[in-house]
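Minimal example, chain plus 6-diazenyl-5-OXO-L-norleucine.
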Amino acid sequence: MLNRATDRKLSFAVLAGVAALFLVQFFAASADEVPFIQYTDRFHPTLGQGGMVVSQEAMASRVGADILAKGGNAVDAAVATGFALAVTLPQAGNIGGGGFMLVYLAEHKKNIAIDYREIAPQQAHRDLFLNEQGEADPEKSRYSALSSGVPGTVAGLVHTQQKYGNLPLKAVMAPAIELAEQGFTVSYPLSWSIVQAEKRLNAHPASKEYFFRPDGKAWQQGDRWRQKDLANTLKRIASKGADGFYKGKTADLIVAEMERNGGLISHADLAGYAVVERTPVTGTYRGFEIVSMPPPSSGGIHIVQMLNILEGWDLQAQGHNSAGYLHRLIESMRRAYADRSKYLGDPDFNPVPVAALTDKSYANRLRAGISLEKATPSAEVLPAKNLAPESPQTTHYSVWDKDGNVVSNTYTLNFSYGNGISVTGAGFLLNNEMDDFSAKPGVPNAFGLLGDEANAIEPRKRPLSSMTPTLVFKDGVPVLATGGPGGSRIITSVLQVILNNIEFGMNIAEATAAPRIHHQWYPDTVDVEKGISPDTMKILRDMGHNATPSPWAIGRTQSITREQGMFQGITDYRWPGGSAEAAQP
Ligand code: DON
């Protein structure tokens, strides 16, 4: 127990300590060397000055940070992390899927949207997933070999690295090859997630061999897991580039797997896969510039559309996560997702009215139709009519290098472990991205999303996505990189991270941790995460919102901000095992 004298001495020491801390912070801040971090906040990001990599799996984040330290730029680090995640986070990191990467090149002040989404095989057709009664068959579109689109990940990563990276592809891929060949220690979350997909994986001999030990148990926490076939596939890519995947042995193995399981991907489909560089979707919000993914992702358009609607209200006066604020969010989400159902699809097949949907005056019209007193039932909200047509135009990680180049990348197999089918002899899983097409107008996909003609299946078409890798700029300088997985919940979780950070001034860790909500027009339900108070739920319900506790966490964002030269990174603790890794300056 402390006596009074010790107590007094301690009080003095504490006071002196506090005073010293204030002085250090004052001088540091006034010297403009470090940003003023509010250590009174409840959550804190990882800080660093030599660059930052944030992903959902710590070994892969470290791989990226080490590539930065070795002189790689943000693109090299992003590609290294992408290949590493294909080894250490097999449920979502992938070479058998596809995705979207946003790249900011500081020297040229240029943003590039890399579309490496899967494409429908040449033999796919509109009614591919309908049964004899003409009804959509989710077994086919989600779990059969027909559910796999032609993978785009390898083409996307290799294209971007060879065009915008600094290091040789081999150097960038070496860490992933080592992790696959030498193995790594399995974590509890990885073991847990294999068990969740046990039935699907066990149904296919190659998946059974890769994801389960010889005694039939899923790889357990503490086991060393080596993936020889995957290592060899990665080596073919490292030495031959994209041809190491789309041609030769890997292509033969993919086509053989298709033939065994009644899938459609052919040699011609693989050889014909092409990455597309697109112009990002842009918008503004209270003086910040928003740069995000264009179609065939719906993410960018709807982030900008919702921010445009929200910009017309004083949100701070409502208070963060108050019923008044959440009501405004929900009504904006409802209207954006209604438009998504009708207008969004692959722009190379149907023109998408990007400019009309992201126009401030259209948002003003939508806002004017929103009651501030009560919910609008979704049945009364229809997609916009007669928008002017226009000419064509799930895991996330963010990387930022010391020179100011930024990469925000989201890629996926669609479901965890895709359709569960591994390519025998090649060591990797195939996606079930074809379920993101609208199997039939009015029939929801696995994420409850509705679609129409614009997203019907056609050969070589890309299915509509919600992936939303996004960058925010202030006065032309990037200040935030974010994105995440979560199917239909991606767009709304990214929206809330952006608002929490730039509207409510939260540091990126607080902005990530704050409870989220989600509404997608149909079903007419607001999913609400733990942490929104019962009083707020009651007010929302009294306004007519079907506010329901969400059965799962909403999104898993991986974000970085940069203020006064300091990087602040945070993984989303809605999934364990991710990390923000600072590169050695
Ligand atoms: O592209 C899309 O929108 C979906 N295939 C993403 C799937 C997803 O995020 C699953 N992860 N939780």
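Residues 394, 412, 414, 433, 436, 465-467, 485-487, 490 surround 6-diazenyl-5-OXO-L-norleucine (CB under 6 Å). Confidence is low (pLDDT under 50) at residues 1-34, 389-393.
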